[in-house]
Backbone:
């Protein structure tokens, strides 16, 4: 579905590389987590896929076609994008935000309206209640639901997500992660999701690519990463959620022992 | 008794001023709205362009800021000059448009630049073209800021439109400038209040639109939003109706009478207008114009007749410094006007309005002084007073060098204070205007100038080339030749300047002198 071949990106004419020699493939219907700390090149990699950035060298193929040879705007309209800061248009209603891409693609108005209703329901927002509201009248979680609905409105096969749930409170984040995962399975979406949260990546991704200093260190399923980290940095990243989970187990164990003694 | 008369005068004066309101209101509103609309049409696209092109932005903003720093009167004068002396609405509108540009261009640029980066990125990311990003995202989001710029421009334009009077476009400025010159504070007040009201109304109206634009997302459903919307709609409709009326073309008149901005000019223009109307002409006045402006407008036939002085043409236009005597100056001026500008002297009225030395009658008689030559032996012991520019003008230099005269002290005053100073014996000699009503009021004598040190300032009716072809017009006005003496002019000026009577009283006084 997507293939990156030796992609490099330099912002200073070749002195340093924000992305260097990145190659990977994402299969149809797969959710790839792209993880690393700020400045590791994960967002640049994502932006090169829909040509928000131009690679300095290397090729990117979507459905076997080189993105370089496609009109950037047409390409973007066919790829869903969920933005880091949500990026809803504050002067558009929820419905107008969601319909933006189908309208850019000149769908017939009746199809646009119907699609808007369907995707709003898909992301758990009752159209009657939310369609005419403005983003400023929504909570952070509701806003990001609209962001997801907008990305899915034109029925893309491929969705790019840039730290989509980063700004949300933990409970809302967990809800949205689960719901999005089930939507992704249901629609068989191919997704590349940038995140710096390893727990999120482990819970949502089919495969995870760990990036550091512009390079992909390891790419594999959550189990592969947990059991066989190939690099000290990957090990360190994976240790954190593991230690937390262990600690949580200990607390729960201790509680149940105490409860037993009281009986 | 006195109070009752005072109140009646006041009521009469107010009625006279209010009668002028529709005309000035029309003129002022039309100038403001036309300039504002043209300003928007030019400035918003410029601002959009500058926001997209960093290379354009800095020079453009600098340019519109520099325009703003030009004194407004200078811009008006320059525009008139660039249009080849054309006066009226066109130069006024051009100047107002130039002034309206800064706030609109600046706010357009700022508004577009301050649209949140993440929103613009999102627009790119979902596949909007640069043009779509501009029209669907950036401009709508910048709208409240752009409207705020238009609002600032509107208030400035209403204020500056008062200056249009100086280039012959009617506005509330007519009240202000006429009032200042003829000491009619009521007229100044009416004009200022009217302009302030117009500014406040436009400001609230555009402010309302700005509020609607800023709250269209969150407020659209509230009762308050709907109420404001209805109010704005009503306001806009009334402005549109009223401006439709303002933009109706002026009725065509036969003759246009011009004038500069001081009392004598208003009075003579008024008298000339009455005489012409009695001869059956329809007329219109364009008064309070700058010296240069009224001359140019007559040279290009926009104005048909106005009161000019031989010495003004002699020194300001012909750049002459010598003084061959009153008759010689007049005939050379006539030749110059005809040859260079196709204009003519239709009637030399008889009075001169020139700088002259004046003394208290009592002191002059005691010292036996009648002319500047007589004054010379006493001068070193006397204190002289002049207006703010007199002691730097060619007239004083010429006096000093011709008579080899100088005073113990030379003080400068505001004109009004200068007369008080001589009345209270703080100074002994002043540089007065020969036709100033206060010369009579304070019982001063004008000293003769036997050596012709000061160039003559014969008042005459300067007439455009086109008007000279109109026989009835020429006959009617040439009858005024020699009819207004120094004394008549001085007394008429005195009615207005000293006794605070309306200009119409001065006109009536002159008319009586004409029929004698």
Residues:
């Amino acid at each position: 579905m997507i293939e990156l071949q030796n992609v490099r990106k330099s912002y200073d004419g070749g002195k340093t590389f924000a992305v260097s020699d990145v190659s990977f493939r994402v299969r149809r219907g797969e959710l790839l987590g792209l993880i690393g700390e700020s400045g590791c090149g994960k967002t640049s990699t994502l932006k090169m896929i829909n040509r928000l950035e131009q690679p300095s060298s290397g090729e990117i193929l979507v459905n076997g076609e080189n993105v370089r040879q496609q009109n950037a705007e047409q390409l973007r309209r066919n790829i869903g994008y969920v933005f880091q800061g949500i990026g809803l248009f504050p002067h558009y209603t929820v419905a107008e935000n969601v319909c933006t891409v189908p309208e850019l693609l000149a769908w017939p108005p009746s199809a646009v309206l119907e699609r808007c209703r369907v995707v709003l329901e898909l992301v758990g927002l009752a159209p009657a209640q939310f369609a005419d509201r403005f983003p400023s009248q929504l909570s952070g979680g509701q806003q990001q639901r609209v962001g997801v609905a907008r990305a899915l409105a034109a029925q893309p096969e491929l969705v790019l997500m840039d730290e989509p749930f980063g700004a949300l409170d933990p409970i809302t984040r967990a809800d949205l992660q689960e719901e999005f995962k089930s939507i992704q399975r249901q629609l068989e979406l191919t997704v590349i999701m940038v995140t710096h949260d390893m727990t999120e990546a482990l819970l949502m991704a089919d495969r995870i690519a760990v990036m550091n200093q512009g390079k992909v260190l390891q790419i594999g399923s959550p189990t592969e990463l947990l059991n066989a980290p190939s690099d000290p940095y990957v090990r360190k990243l994976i240790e954190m959620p593991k230690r937390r989970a262990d600690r949580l187990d200990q607390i729960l164990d201790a509680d149940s022992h105490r409860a037993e003694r009281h009986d | 008794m006195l109070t009752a008369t005072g109140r009646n005068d006041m009521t009469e004066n107010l009625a006279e001023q209010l009668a002028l309101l529709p005309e000035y209101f029309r003129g002022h509103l039309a100038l403001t709205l036309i300039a504002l609309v043209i300003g928007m049409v030019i400035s918003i696209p410029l601002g959009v362009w500058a926001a997209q092109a960093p290379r354009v932005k800095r020079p453009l903003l600098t340019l519109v800021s520099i325009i703003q720093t030009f004194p407004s009167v200078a811009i008006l004068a320059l525009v008139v000059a660039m249009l080849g002396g054309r006066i009226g609405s066109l130069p006024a509108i051009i100047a107002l448009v130039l002034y309206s540009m800064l706030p609109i261009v600046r706010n357009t640029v700022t508004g577009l630049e301050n649209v949140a980066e993440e929103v613009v990125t999102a627009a790119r990311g979902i596949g909007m073209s640069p043009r779509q990003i501009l029209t669907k995202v950036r401009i709508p989001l910048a709208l409240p800021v752009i409207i705020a710029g238009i609002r600032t421009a509107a208030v400035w334009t209403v204020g500056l439109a008062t200056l249009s009077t100086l280039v012959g476009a009617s506005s509330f400025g007519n009240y202000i400038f006429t009032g200042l010159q003829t000491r009619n504070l009521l007229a100044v007040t009416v004009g200022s209040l009217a302009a302030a009201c117009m500014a406040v109304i436009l400001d609230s109206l555009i402010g309302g639109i700005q509020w609607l634009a800023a709250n269209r997302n969150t407020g659209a459903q509230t009762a308050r939003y709907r109420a404001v919307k209805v109010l704005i709609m009503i306001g806009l409709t009334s402005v549109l109706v009223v401006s439709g009326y303002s933009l109706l073309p002026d009725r065509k008149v036969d003759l246009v009478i011009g004038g500069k901005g001081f009392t004598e000019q208003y009075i003579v223009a008024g008298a000339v207008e009455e005489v012409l109307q009695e001869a059956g002409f329809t007329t219109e006045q364009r008064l309070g114009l700058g010296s240069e402006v009224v001359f140019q407008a007559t040279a290009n036939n926009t104005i048909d007749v106005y009161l000019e002085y031989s010495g003004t043409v002699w020194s300001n236009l012909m750049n002459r410094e010598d003084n061959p005597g009153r008759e010689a100056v007049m005939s050379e001026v006539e030749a110059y006007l005809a040859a260079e500008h196709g204009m003519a002297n239709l009637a030399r009225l008889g009075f001169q309005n020139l700088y002259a030395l004046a003394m208290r009658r009592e002191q002059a008689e005691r010292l036996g002084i009648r002319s500047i030559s007589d004054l010379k032996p006493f001068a070193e012991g006397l204190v002289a007073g002049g207006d703010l520019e007199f002691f730097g003008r060619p007239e004083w230099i010429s006096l000093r060098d011709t008579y080899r005269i100088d005073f113990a002290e030379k003080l400068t005053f505001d004109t009004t204070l200068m007369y008080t100073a001589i009345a209270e014996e703080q100074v002994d000699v002043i540089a007065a205007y020969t036709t100033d009503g206060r010369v009579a009021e304070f019982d001063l004598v004008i000293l003769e100038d036997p050596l012709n040190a000061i160039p003559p300032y014969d008042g005459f009716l300067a007439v455009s080339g086109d008007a000279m072809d109109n026989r009835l017009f020429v006959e009617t006005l040439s009858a005024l030749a020699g009819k207004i003496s120094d004394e008549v002019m001085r007394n008429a000026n005195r009615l207005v300047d000293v006794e605070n009577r309306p200009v119409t009283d001065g006109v009536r006084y002159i008319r009586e002198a004409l029929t004698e």
Summary: Chain B touches chain A at residues 118-119, 121-129, 132, 137, 140-141, 216-218 (CB under 8 Å).
